[in-house]
Amino acid sequence: MWQFKVIQKPEQFEALAQSWNHLLSESASHVPFLRHEYLWTWWQTLGGGEWQHGELFIVLALDDSGEIRAIAPLFYTHNREGETALLLLGSVEISDYLDFIVREEDLRSFCEELLVFLNGVSSPAWQVIDLYNVVDSSPTLPALEAAAQRLGWRYREECLQHSPYIPLPGDWEKYLANIDKKQRHEIRRKMRRLEESGVPFRWYIVQEENLLDQEVNSFLDLMALDAEKKAFLTTVMRSQMRSAIWTAFRAGWLQLAFLEIEGQKAAGYLNFDYANQIWVYNSGMDNRFNAYSPGWVLLSYLLKWANENRRVSFDFMRGNEEYKYRFGAIDRYVMHVRLER
Fold first, then answer.
1. Which of 67, 221, 246, 298 is the most buried (most CB within 10 A)?
2. Domain 165-315 in the same topology as domain 3-161+335-340
3. Residues 175 and 169: beta-carbon distance below 8 Å
4. Burial readout 169-179 (b: 16 or more C-beta within 10 A, e: otherwise)
């Protein structure tokens, strides 16, 4: 039997950074959106204003020595249906993958004991445990379902979104050989068209800390050229995005990349270079340069870089846009789970 401790004060949450990230490195789900620094940043704005109100309710499972063996990174709020609910920190819109933080060998017993513990919690008075953005292959899903069945709870699981990714062979030419012949030709043709156009261009990954604020502004401006993304980028969301980018930079896992044509930014990708994988978070394009297909070209350079630097996958994360599959992505999904007593 584990001992459970609830973290409800921000200063207690902030103090968990080292032990949190150490456990995450060994967790069954090891994704950048579960990093302590990312979720701490998320909490400052409640996801860029997605939630109007929230109360921390992080559940730690401790062994007899007091070591943290598992974390349910939860908060309490009214969910989208207006029910009083416990949700995963990071929910819903800006954190692509969420989960519990626990080693796989501990997962089944943790889920069983966690639900028993939460069943006895009288405050906050939650009606539902509402878990978004859990990858369909996560072992948390069958463990939670089994635990719910033993308690006689209702367990409901639904598919939320496609979340395609590309396994990388570690070699650019091998990667190209593995995708559709027509698409392979298109990638080479579009890269060659820019390279042989005679117009000055460069692509680069931002490295200089003293230039980061300027580069972030440029990236957000590129995003805002798209009407839907412009509406998304409210004042508080811009603050959240800026903080998340700086957080990733300071922690060493930011990949902010641009393609410049004739000295102007034509395309940008905001990625995370984490756990030997590339996680594609957002992008922005300037349609004035469409003749050079800047988004495709920059994506091609980034895929080439990822192969040459032996990254094992290129994760497009949520969304089923056609271009992802044309670059060879394999489908998978993120799930939504509801647990009711």
1. 298
2. yes
3. yes
4. eeebeebbeeb
Superfamily name and number for 165-315: Gcn5-related N-acetyltransferase (GNAT) (3.40.630.30)
Cα separation, 119 vs 151, in Å, equals: 10
Record the pTM: 0.96
| Beta bridge partners of residue 162, listed in sequence order | 333
Q: Is 289 helix (H, G, I), strand (E, B) or coil?
A: helix
Write out the H or E segment, with its range, that includes residue 229: helix 227-232
> What is the rounded average pLDDT of the residues 175-193?
97
Q: Which two tokens stand for residue 231?
A: 């509406």
Q: Which residues, 6 or more positions from 278, have their beta carbon under 8 angstroms from its beta carbon?
A: 255, 271, 272, 302, 306, 311, 313, 314, 315
Q: Which of 245, 235, 237 is nearest to 50 (CA)?
A: 237
The ranges assigned to domains in the chain are 3-161+335-340, 165-315
First to last CA, the chain: 22
DSSP string, 38-82: HHHHHHHHHHHHT-S--EE-EEEEE-TTS-EEEEE-EEEEE-TTS
Question: pLDDT tens digits for 226-271?
Answer: 999 999 999 999 999 999 999 999 999 999 999 999 999 999 999 9
How far CA 35 is from CA of 26, 150, 258, 292, in Å, comes to: 12, 31, 25, 37
Choosing among 3.30.70.1350, 3.10.50.40, 3.40.630.30, 3.50.50.60, the CATH entry for 3-161+335-340 is 3.40.630.30
